[in-house]
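Example pasted here:
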Amino acid sequence: MNESTLRRALLVIAILGLALGIGVWRTGLGPLEADTIWTIATLPVVAALAISILRDFWIGRFGVDAIALVSMSAALLLGQPLAAVVVAIMYAGGTVLEDFARGRAERNLKALTDRSPRVAHRTSTPGAETIAVEEVAVGDVLLVRAGELLPVDGILLDASASLDESAVTGEPLPERRSAGDVLRSGTVNAGETFSMRASAVAEQSTYAAIVRMVAAAQTAKSPFIRMADRFALFLLPVTLLVSGAAWYVSGDPIRALAVLVVATPCPLILAAPVAFIGGVSRAARAGILMKGSAALEALAQVRTAIFDKTGTLTIGGAELLEIEAAPGCDSDHLLQRLASLEQASHHVLADSIIRAAHGRQLILSHPRDVREHRGAGLKGCVDDMSIAAGSRALVLAEKPLPGWAKGGEDRYRTEAVLRVFVSLDNQLAGVFTFGDAVRADAQETLVSLRSAGIRRMVMLTGDDSTAANRISSRLDLDVVVADAVPADKVATVEAEKALGPTMMVGDGINDAPALAAATVGIAMGERGATASSEAADVIVLAGRLAPVADAVRIAQRTRAIALQSIVVGLALSALAMLAAAMGQITPVAGALLQEGIDVAVIVNALRTLGDGRLRRA
């Protein structure tokens, strides 16, 4: 039986014991039988709590649960089992609520390890043999087929290769590599089969290093600590002092027990978990998944925000940025022709082109006689018109660039974009430019975060400085860090975290180590359960950046309500302690009064389920 199931079982036993004892007492069978039932129902909770306190004390933790243990034990020893079982219900209920609040606070490496390369195709005299990736040795010649993961780091042997490196670098566009270039494990062959020479074994390759960094950063995370524990060292001695003073002055041990019962810190045990459960639920309604209340509490205190570029501040794909049409040509007409042709292609840009045409409500035609020139483009016929689309070399061959197209060529010369040249009936008719576009709500989100108290904004990307500066020039950022590999990202996050609580927002596998290293990691999870989602504390499901600001505001409001509930609950408990010390409250009445305080605290904590004053800047 795991701990969560045990806690639920203890709560059920305590509630059933209370109900059964009350039933026996009301039937007039005798108070002794009812007391026995209440005692039996309380003992399992006492035993489990004692073991838990000893275990926590052994590892250097000490919480307010000790007050609940003292009050239940004292109630049983002084012949007040009804008060004891009520306290047991309060404590057991608090632990069950806390289990719900924690949720999936424990992370795992499942997504990362599931994606890890498993096999490699090693070239040998008889032919290629498939082996486990662990068997690859430095110097082995490997075949990487279309669509496969590169098993280890290596050197390209063939003349060229097209690689999708988005999982490792975050770069959304396929990269062309030439003979002798360094290749990294975890990237995907986006072109034809090629040969490479292994330069590292699997354990020492890039992807394995990413997995290790995530594991190390997760291990360094602080364990979940309840807000109540912060007050434990103060509350327990004060409670015992007041209780002992009441006993000494009155000479009545029952008066001391009443003080212990009303002092049982259920506002502390219950308020924070209930408030955080409400906050987590409120966030879920907004498409924000928070892995437990620890993540929410930490997010409320963040003062620095670090953003990945590709897929976070930007859309993360090859989006249509501009259409340059030749004089006399209509851009929609060109897009309709190009999208019609691209229906026959599996190129990474095909979906973006077709989506752009559908966005303009263009009706596509059926292409004919389509011939694909691998890595260069397409040629075919659309509506009885010959069309060629692709690289400048494919479309123009040796022809000079027309004057109308020279401006765009100069403008994008240093930009990280793809240029698709389109000719109709052998005449250049247009040039389409594709690149990574800034999210429509990016600037609004940054403004909203600043109004929520985020003082420092950083963009951290593996792209080169030219691409990074193109995006940062459109946003209100304080710092831009470019050309960052996963290890650089972790170092940057650690440096910022040393200055204050920091959140990292990213979406790629290459962001996973940095997400795990940050005070709070937020993953853009619109593309599914990636490694970044597993490493993060918070996952934004919507394909927008605005929920990041919503998450911060929800966290801040939730923490404020939790603290309010704790302060008000403790104040009421303090007044009840004084009344009990003066003999105005009996132990059973004190337990019932404490339940009333608990209800008030819980009702206030449940306000986190509402919207409050949440708003966008």
Notes: The CA atoms of residues 97 and 273 lie 6 Å apart. Residues 319-435 form a domain with the Calcium-transporting ATPase, cytoplasmic domain N fold (CATH 3.40.1110.10). The two ends are 48 Å apart (CA to CA).
